[in-house]
Specification:
The protein is of the alpha+beta class. It contains five helices and 14 strands. The mean pLDDT is about 85.
């Protein structure tokens, strides 16, 4: 009996070892077992041995939990093996809108002022929040909802067909940011208040084409600090 796992087009993994976890209350330990494969029979576990720190380090690397040493620039706010967050200054950006909404189509391809942003990648998911100030945020800085379609109440972006970089590291952050604004904003994503503007999303952006500064008074409160946004990683 062969036990294999296919991941992608060209990789096939074979079952070699198993980890058993024992727990009583808050105490726990694990044992590592070799797996024996027998023709036409179920595989079985050999006698176990204590799991070593070296094995856990190897396992973590194999699962992608290792992070190469990087010198973090000023715009990076937080970094773990699974997550990286950074901020981007207020600046003009081109915006693109889908064809399904006639009013939005009129706004397509124009230059608009944008607020400062906090962006986060967790796994392969992108999250975006806005800032109502113009300097590097602190852990207790209150964040605002990003005033963009395709972004839900947790700040999670619907990537759709967005062409994001393959890598998630300091060097790829500008590529993720560019991919976000090179994509089309097509639809609201869930029940989220994108702006306090009386005309809503379309009213806000209709009034901003060609202007120099984004009116931060129209940003809606996310009810999160930067610390909470990073710790919750996509929880509303």
């Amino acid at each position: 009996m062969n036990v294999h796992l296919r991941a992608g087009d060209n990789q096939i993994f074979s079952l070699k070892q198993a980890v058993l976890l024992y727990q009583e209350g808050s105490r726990a330990f694990a044992t590592l077992h070799e797996v024996k494969i027998r023709p036409d029979q179920a595989p079985y576990l050999c006698a176990g041995q204590s799991v070593t720190t070296g094995f856990l380090e190897t396992l973590a690397k194999g699962l992608g939990a290792s992070t190469a040493a990087e010198v973090l620039p000023e715009h990076v706010l937080a970094r773990t093996p699974e997550m990286i967050a950074w901020w981007s200054r207020a600046q003009p950006r081109l915006m693109f809108f889908g064809d399904s909404n006639a009013e939005a189509k009129k706004l397509n391809g124009k230059l608009y002022p944008h607020p400062a942003l906090v962006l986060m990648i967790h796994g392969r998911e992108l999250f975006v929040r806005a800032l109502d100030e113009y300097h590097r945020p602190a852990s207790n800085t209150r964040l605002k909802n990003a005033p963009y379609w395709n972004t839900d109440s947790a700040g999670r972006v619907c990537l759709g067909s967005m062409r994001v970089p393959e890598d998630v590291n300091v060097g790829s952050l500008s590529g993720w940011e560019k991919a976000y604004f090179a994509s089309e904003f097509t639809h609201p994503s869930g029940a989220v208040r994108l702006t306090t503007h009386s005309g809503g999303f379309l009213g806000l952006w209709s009034n901003l084409a060609g202007r120099k500064h984004f009116p931060v008074k129209f940003l809606a409160d996310s009810k999160q600090t930067l610390q909470e946004f990073i710790e919750r990683k996509g929880e509303g």
